[in-house]
């Protein structure tokens, strides 16, 4: 909100400067515009035809519209946040009350044994047991 107030103040102040400054002549030379006169060019009237009261009214309307746009944006962002939270999938609870069968426990253990990296394996082929540093087969878990 403070930055919006600062922007509005700046725009109104700049509008005040533009009213008091004399307009420069702009020349249209073919398809281009310039401050320098050119042969055969037309002078473009750039003066603001509005009265100071009309200018102030226009600035106030612009300021009011900017405030309304900011309020609408905040409302939209709040609504989008609520919609996103409502459409998010529910977080599964750890205590679901479902009893785990032995086959479910076995599947969970199998999932835990898989490595964290990908290893290509041929279907139906078993990997040979790993050997320790001595060249002997590694002993099973005790």
Structure description:
- The protein has 142 residues and is mainly alpha-helical.
- The protein has a domain at 22-85.
- It is built from three helices and three strands; from the N terminus they run αβββαα.
- It has helices at residues 2-20, 52-87, 102-113, and strands spanning 26-29, 32-34, 42-44.
- Strands 2-1-3 form a three-stranded antiparallel sheet, with no helix packed on it.
- Strand 1 and strand 2 (32-34) form a beta hairpin.
Structural class: mainly alpha
Order of helices and strands: HEEEHH
Q: Specify Rg, calculated over alpha carbons.
A: 38 Å
State the strand order across the main sheet: 2-1-3
How much helix, percentage-wise, in residues?
40-55%
Number of helices: 3
- Report low-confidence residues grouped into runs of 5 or more: none
Termini distance?
Answer: 68 Å
How many beta-strand runs? Answer: 3
Largest sheet: 3 strands, antiparallel
Kindly report the average pLDDT value.
Answer: 77
Q: Write down the overall geometry.
A: elongated
β-strand amount = 5-15%
Oligomer: single chain
In short:
The protein has 142 residues and is mainly α.
Keywords:
142 residues; mainly alpha; 3-stranded antiparallel beta sheet; 3 helices; 7% strand
Task: Provide the fold topology.
Elements: H1 2-20, E1 26-29, E2 32-34, E3 42-44, H2 52-87, H3 102-113
Antiparallel strand pairs: 1-2, 1-3
């Amino acid at each position: 909100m403070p930055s919006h107030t600062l922007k509005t103040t700046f725009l109104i102040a700049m509008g005040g400067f533009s009213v008091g400054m004399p307009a420069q002549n702009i020349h249209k030379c073919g398809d281009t515009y310039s401050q320098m006169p050119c042969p055969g060019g037309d002078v473009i009237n750039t003066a603001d035809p509005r009265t100071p009261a009309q200018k102030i009214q226009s600035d106030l309307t612009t300021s009011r519209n900017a405030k309304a746009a900011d309020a609408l944006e905040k409302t939209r962002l709040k609504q989008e946040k609520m919609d996103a939270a409502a459409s998010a999938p529910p977080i599964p609870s750890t205590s679901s009350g479902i009893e785990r069968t032995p086959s479910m426990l076995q599947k969970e253990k199998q999932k835990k044994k898989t490595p964290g990296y990908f290893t290509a394996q041929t279907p139906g082929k078993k990997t040979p047991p790993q050997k320790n540093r001595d060249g002997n087969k590694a002993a099973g878990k005790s």
